[in-house]
Amino acid sequence: MLPVIALIGRPNVGKSTLFNQLTRSRDALVADFPGLTRDRQYGQGKVGGRPYLVVDTGGLVGDERGLDGLMADQVWVAVEESDAVVLMLDARDGINLSDEQIATRLRRSGKRVFLTLNKVDGVDVAPVLTDAFALGLGEPLQIAAAHGRGVVSLIDRVLAVLPEDTGGGEGETPGETQGIRIAVVGRPNVGKSTLINRMLGEQRVLAFDQPGTTRDSIHIPFERDGERYTLIDTAGVRRRSKVSEAVEKFSIIKTLQAINDANVALLVLDAQAGEVTEQDATLAGHIMESGTALVLAINKWDGLDDEQRQWLREQLDRRLPFLDFAERYFISALHGSGVGKLFEAVQLAYRAATIKVPTPDLTRLLERAVYAHQPPLVQGRRIKLRYAHQGGQNPPVIVVHGNQTARLPQSYKRYLNNFFRQALKLVGTPIRMEFKTGENPYQGKRNQLTARQQQRRKRMIRHVKK
Ligand SMILES: Nc1nc2c(ncn2[C@@H]2O[C@H](COP(=O)(O)OP(=O)(O)OP(=O)(O)O)[C@@H](O)[C@H]2O)c(=O)[nH]1
Ligand SMILES: [Mg+2]
């Protein structure tokens, strides 16, 4: 399961700055999709091939009351749901009573705490170090989040003590006994439990609970028409007979982990809510970010008149334009209409997500795409795209090799993405495009620089880095 790291600390210590650093690797991957807004609080990152989830929290003072108390409660829920906590201190501000109160509570939580001293750039940390040590959480790791200093060692240290993500997220094929893993996700009350009940109950399926899965999300293997599936249930349903009484507990962390564990996410929306909400869009964004295949189920479609249906369709186009690759299914979990079709949709999305395309075929497609529409000139030189190979599955990763690929405009990347999608008839899965610049035509041809030129070059590089 995707390990979860919570960032905790007083206001202004630099939690959000660190969050941005830790999730930046993913920025590039999702930046291509228009309309997608990133969640400012929950983000995925990857270091050395290991994915993780980071939670940024609001600043804590230590002894909040009233409304502040409620907000602080949220922070402690995040601590509860995480595998490791990074407690941030401010080297400029020093350690104060708030830090001590937070540290005390963290020590009692039994969570793994990584004490981290931020903003160590340009200050004498010696006195603060002593105070920090007195918090009883060991010696703090020193970082300067704003400059990215120490950030990788911090995450390395955290990941080293956390269990490997064996959930089979990105790039893995499902175990033979599990079949296609489907995460049913959505806001509270959209009808996830009813839908799961339908999917399991209506058909002649073999369903059984598999207890002992960590952190409350349960995996329900079953078979339908000779195809194996595993439903990953975040809705808090335990027994089929008790579905109607089950109180749904919504946890974004649990949801994100389920998405990451799944091959296909079944995102359930509530048609009778009359709109696509912010939270729907955020969940959709997370699914995009994780690269999981996607089927959109618009539930409670019964009882809407034509005008309401039309309105909702427009809402979907407007608010979730980046999900144009996913098919929409209008269903009623309550009455069962459209539910059977979801299985075909899931299979289709899964097949698309796990497609294997040989390099010559991909390269031919690339040539066709380039022939139809040339990449632009950059400073008088044409960007050349030479060949493509597949770099992964679920989602399919297409790696395009050429020169000056770093300068390809977003619009051209999008064009290629659409071209491959249409040519390969991929429905229900995002495609991830990576661009690599291969042999540099000027390689080995560079003139030797004189000592003075080298000095100058160093100065310029230093200047540019600032
Ligand atoms: N000098 C220096 N400043 C930093 C560093 N990291 C963050 N800052 C600055 O500290 C200020 C607060 O940073 P944030 O990341 O917003 O702090 P936060 O902990 O998220 O604050 P709250 O969300 O309000 O609790 C900003 O002005 C940052 O630019 C650092 O490593 N060095
Ligand atoms: Mg912040």
Structural write-up:
The chain has 466 residues and is of the alpha/beta class. It folds into 3 domains: 4-161, Rossmann fold (3-Layer(aba) Sandwich), CATH 3.40.50.300; 180-353, P-loop containing nucleotide triphosphate hydrolases (Rossmann fold, 3-Layer(aba) Sandwich), CATH 3.40.50.300; 359-437, K homology (KH) domain (GMP Synthetase, Chain A, domain 3, 2-Layer Sandwich). It contains 13 helices and 17 strands. It has helices spanning 15-30, 66-81, 97-109, 126-133, 151-161, 192-201, 252-261, 278-290, 306-319, 339-353, 359-372, 410-423, 451-465; strands spanning 4-9, 42-47, 50-56, 84-90, 112-118, 141-142, 180-185, 218-224, 227-233, 264-270, 293-299, 328-330, 377-378, 381-382, 384-392, 397-403, 432-437. The longest helix is centred in the N-terminal third of the chain and has 16 residues, at 15-30. The site of guanosine-5'-triphosphate (GTP) has 17 residues, from α1.
Radius of gyration: 25 Å
Number of strands: 17
Broad CATH class of the largest domain: Alpha Beta
| Small molecules bound | guanosine-5'-triphosphate, magnesium ion
Strand order of the largest sheet: 2-3-1-4-5-6
Brief synopsis:
By secondary structure, the protein is an alpha/beta fold.
Name a few traits of the molecule.
binds guanosine-5'-triphosphate; 3 domains; alpha/beta; Rossmann fold; GMP Synthetase, Chain A, domain 3; 466 residues; 6-stranded mixed sheet; 17 strands; binds magnesium ion
